[in-house]
Structures are given as C-alpha cells and as structure tokens.
Specification:
Elements: H1 6-29, H2 34-43, H3 47-58, H4 63-74, H5 76-85, H6 92-99, H7 104-111, H8 116-148, H9 159-171, H10 175-191, H11 199-227
Helix pairs in contact: 1-2, 1-3, 1-8, 2-8, 3-4, 5-7, 7-8, 10-11
C-alpha cells in the first residue's frame, strides 16, 4: 500500500504549520490571552474546534453554542481513534497515545496499510510531522500575530477550508454520505437567519443523521428488491 514520501510529508507539515499560524493569529486579533492560545495549541490539537468557537463568537453567539460547535467538529476524532484501535494490538499505553493523536490524515494513511508494523510506522511518522508543523505554526502565529495582521492578505485563511474540502471530497462520492451532507446543509441554510450563531450547525447534525438513515434504508430496500424472486 502507499506510504507517504518525504515530499508528501513536507507538504503535510507545511499545511499544518500554516493552519497553526492562521489559528493563533485569529485568536490574537480577538484579544485571547497568550497562555490560553498556547495551551489550546498544545492540548486541544484541533484547529477546526478553535475556529468553530471563533466563528460563533464573532457572530455574537452564546458561549454554550460556541463550545458545543467546537466539540461537535472534534467529535469525529473519536470515531477515527476507534477505527485505528482495531489495527493496533500493542500496549494500552500506545493505543491511548494514538487515541489522543488521531486525526484525519494520519489515520487515513495508517489504516490503508496491510500489516500492523506498517500501520504503526506510518501513523507515528505522519503524526510527528503534523504535530511539529502545528506546534511551530501556533507559536509563530502567537509571536507574530500583531505583525502579520489579517491572514487573508497572505492567503492563509484558505488553508482550513481547502483541507476540509479535501477530507470530505472523497466521502461525498458515497450516496449515503452525499444525502447526509445535502440534508445537513439544507437544515443549516434554513435555520441560519432564524437562530443564534452556532445553533444551526448543531442542528445540522440531526439533519445529517436523518439523511444518512434515509439513504441507508433506501439502499437496503433496493437490495431486498433485487434479491426477491
């Protein structure tokens, strides 16, 4: 199976560096305490969670909605960790360490490998590159936040949306995932002008679950009809 090469690892590291800079600068611009920014970079590990919170705060949404929005976008990491756990049969300590470092790129590349040694090697190699880029970028953004100013001038604001599109792009080829995405987007767009910031995103989860359930029910019925004499 494909194992990431040096150029691919370097690109991934730079991407997370840029994300770290972007998130830290965005928080500095909003007057967030430097200690809190650094603590989030070292402990939270989730740029999307921080940006979700910032988005809700910028729209004057309630604190609870901001916190729940950040938690929501990070909840996928639990699913990723569970997926990876079935491929790691080593010590509980290593599995616990892998669980708190499970993200989209490193898990996706690791589970593609055929045997456990390759899974472990690829996972930790990619993880080290990602986290190095994220931590260094977060510190650079914290130190130079007031100097860099608006990150949109540097094009760094496009990093996170591009990364998210790359992550979900392949999933949208599946009919059930596409149905879930369409329903969730519809719920968000309908409720966006009516509800406080952050709440439409939270409601979109129920829409996604409903769309996924409907798509899978229709798929099962189709399979039953094909199997019927």
């Amino acid at each position: 199976m494909h194992q990431p090469r040096f150029a691919e690892l370097a690109t991934l590291g730079f991407t997370y560096f840029a994300v770290g800079v972007t998130v830290s600068v965005a928080l500095v611009e909003r007057g967030v305490d430097a200690g809190l920014i650094l603590g989030a970079a070292l402990l939270v590990y989730s740029a999307t969670s921080e940006l979700a919170y910032v988005a809700v705060s910028d729209a004057d949404g309630p604190l609870l909605a901001g916190v729940l929005s950040g938690w929501l976008v990070a909840s996928r990491f639990g699913v990723l960790a569970a997926t990876l756990g079935t491929r790691l049969e080593r010590s509980r300590g290593e599995r616990a360490a892998a669980a708190i470092n499970s993200f989209d790129p490193n898990v996706a590349l690791a589970v593609m490998q055929r045997d456990e040694p390759a899974v472990r090697r690829v996972f930790w190699r990619v993880t080290s590159v990602m986290m190095a880029g994220w931590w260094v970028g977060s510190i650079v953004g914290l130190v130079l936040g007031n100097v860099l100013g608006d990150t949109s001038r540097l094009g760094l604001d496009a990093v996170v949306p591009a990364a998210l599109l790359a992550i979900v792009g392949g999933l949208l080829r599946r009919p059930d995932a596409l149905s879930a995405a369409v329903v969730a987007a519809t719920v968000t767009l309908v409720t966006l002008p009516l509800l406080p910031a952050g709440v439409p995103i939270l409601l979109s989860v129920s829409g996604a679950v409903a769309g996924l359930a409907v798509a899978r029910t229709m798929d099962r019925r189709s399979m039953s009809d094909e199997a019927a004499p």
